[in-house]
Amino acid sequence: MIGGSTFEAELAAICPWADKAPPIAIEERLARLERARELMAEAGADALLVGAGLSLSYFTGIGWGMIERLVAMVLTPRGRPVIVCPAFEQGSLEAILALDVDLRLWEEHESPSVLVANVLREAGAGRLAIDPALPFGMAERIRLAAPSAAVLDATPIIDGCRAIKSEAELALMRQAKQMTLEVQRRAARVLAPGIRASEVVSFIDQAHKAIGSAGSTFCIVQFGASTAFPHGLPKDDELHEGDMVLIDTGCAVQGYNSDITRSYVFGTADAEQRRIWEIEAEAQRAAFDAARPGVCCEDIDSAARAVLERHGLGPDYRLPGLPHRTGHGIGLSVHEAPYLVRGDRTALRPGMCFSNEPMIVVPGRFGVRLEDHFHVTEDGAAWFTEPPRSMKCLFA
Predict the structure, then answer these.
(1) Domain positions in the chain
(2) Rounded to whole angstroms, how far apart are CA atoms 360 and 367?
(3) Which element (helix H / strand E) includes 209?
(4) In this predicted model, what pLDDT tens digit does every residue of 362-390 receive, in sequence order?
(5) How far is CA 209 from the centre of its chain?
């Protein structure tokens, strides 16, 4: 299972993913807009402004990133969504638009903030909720252009929509995660003494492409003492017998992310490596078992930490122990709200999706992180990918 193969053999054996999840339908995007309107009313907002980026893609399918020119959606309680866009981008925008929108264009010498102010005035909107991801400068110019409008934080509206995944979103995430787990399995097989971390990173990117994604969205490969640093060190590790291996990587399927970590020993594990690995697996299981509707996010973190403390690790963020939160939300962003961490009192609801990764760090020696993801169901939680059953059965 670990080692014994080659890059060429493993890449040649990968087939493009056959069971592809369907894309997000127009009807679902329209339902998202209606849900945003409901949350606007709850937040006391008369309008919602969402800038270019993942949230604009979520609502409209416009997959443009944030630049210095304002591209944004203004949503009011009634009527079509308004898209504010540079005039020279009209053709490119219309080529990808799937929704019926009111397109407001601005020339290079004009102010898009004035366009936004005009939309607010036409709608009689006195309270504008602004996307927290919008750059401060853009938000400030809109505030100055519409001085009579009160500005609100749109976080409860946007996160309130994005945190609850539909069946279509769950299917896309399930595909991405299962693809990455297969890549992880094959990455373990190409390991050999003397191999460099950078070589494994390159293999994983090629494998992600071969299986049907655009490649790795990120990739962390660590050997030996580097695994004691959650995100590694700025060096290209060389693999040796007895080293702990930590590989954390993911891909995206139609924008929805995977993020899977496996830790194991290359060669024969010593007693301490085995002990810490077993505690890590126990903590991951405890976090999963605690997840169900109504439970607060911070309680999942507490369940994992209780396992560590029972084995003499920690407490809190002390090392040896868990130096960071137990998990994070995931969807269009690899890390998104809510978070499995002390202080996050968000109650779990069906459709919420989280990583489960209560890493254990033994300073100066190694770290172990097992990361799989689950989604909350009506009566508990369900894994997207099955966690390792043991150090000898890493890929169930």
Answers:
(1) 26-162, 164-383
(2) 6
(3) helix 197-211
(4) 999 999 999 999 999 999 999 999 999 99
(5) 19
Residue 326 region by backbone torsions, left for phi larger than 0, else alpha for psi between -120 and 50, else beta: alpha
Average pLDDT over residues 207-223: 98
Instruction: Give this prediction's pTM.
Output: 0.96
Mean pLDDT throughout 274-295?
A: 98
- pLDDT per position as a tens digit, 109-126: 999 999 999 999 999 999
Nearest to 277 by CA among 356, 374, 367, 387: 367
Task: Match domain 26-162 to its CATH number in 3.90.230.10, 1.20.1110.10, 3.40.50.360, 3.40.350.10.
Answer: 3.40.350.10
Phi, psi of 182 (to 5 degrees): -65, -40
The pLDDT of residue 75 is above 80: yes
Q: What is the mean pLDDT of the chain?
A: 98
CATH class (in words) of the domain with range 164-383 = alpha beta
**C-alpha dihedral sign at 91, 96, 100, 105:** negative
DSSP collapsed to 3 states, 96-160: HCCCCCEEEEECCCCCHHHHHHHHHHHHCCCEEEECCCCCHHHHHHHHHHCCCCEEEECHHHHHH
Q: Which residues have C-beta within 8 Å of that of residue 70, sequence separation ≥ 6?
A: 51, 84, 106, 112, 113, 116, 138
Per-residue confidence band for 138, with pLDDT thresholds at 50, 70 and 90? very high
| Contact between 182 and 340 (Cβ < 8 Å) | no
How far is residue 296's CA from residue 284's CA, in Å, rounded to a whole number? Answer: 17
Sequence letter at residue 35: R
How is residue 347 annotated by DSSP? B
Selection from 170, 169, 26, 172 nearest residue 96 by Cα: 26
What is the chain's alpha carbon radius of gyration, rounded to the nearest angstrom? 23
Q: By three-state DSSP, how is residue 193 classified? A: coil
